Amino acid sequence: MFSKSLRILSKRLFLFGPIEVRPCVGQNWCPKKHPDRQPATYTRKHGVRHLIAAYDLKKDKMYGTLQKRKTNKEFLQFLKQLRRKYNSKITLFIVCDNYGPHKKENVVAWAAKNNIEFYYTPTNASWLNKIEPQFNPLKSDVLRNST
What we know:
By secondary structure, the protein is an alpha/beta fold. The chain has helices spanning 72-84, 105-113, 136-143; strands at 8-19, 49-56, 61-67, 91-96, 116-120.
């Protein structure tokens, strides 16, 4: 049991992207004979967006932001947003993958000063991160036009 002076809040962090919502035949549509295909290298006229999100296990609530890029600057900006949501005396434990911006010196230094601890999932073990199942409905319902 934790004392009142030390309350621990666990966060799971995930970067999901690029996100682009464009009409396409989904899983609930009638099959076509031969649908027009678009190559993966097509021009994205309006760009793409990257979702940076955190999942609060205790409150069962997800926080997220859409960014045009996913560099250490955007990641740090999101961490600052997240830190403001909780009392600074509460240690935030953040589980994230081994993506480069998560390990940049400026991000790690800022996190250490602001009572945030990082825990990295092993390579190819994203299933250990509790936020992963939260994105299945997003992928199937929104991006693939399914219900």
